Amino acid sequence: MQILRVAWALAGAAICCLFVMWVHSRFLEEGQLAAGTCEIVTLDRDSSQPRRTIARQTARCACKRGQIAGTTRARPACVDARIVRSRQWCDMMPCLEDEGCDLLANGSGWTCTQPGGRVKTTTVS
What we know:
Elements: H1 2-27, E1 37-46, E2 54-62, E3 67-72, E4 75-80, H2 81-86, E5 100-103, E6 109-113, E7 119-123
Antiparallel strand pairs: 1-2, 3-4, 5-6, 6-7
């Protein structure tokens, strides 16, 4: 009797997994992102200048209504569109937890200052 219960439980779990995979395949086409998520498409690094690395990345996002592609905790993320329109970059928490965020004087980006004094500058184009 116990074996029969285990068999029914395993069959139910397998049917549930198949159903979840079917729903996922019906609503998300190949290469399509889930709403509110981002992925990095390209990442280029240039270390040709001494003591300086220039990194450029392109992200693809599927943001919900009222959101736009931005950066949170040094990763691409969907953020409130108001932040980007007002150029208040630090409101989207772009730096890591132990870093301080400051806006650039011309509003074109932000800097993240690490505790050791190292500064990462990000400009938006």
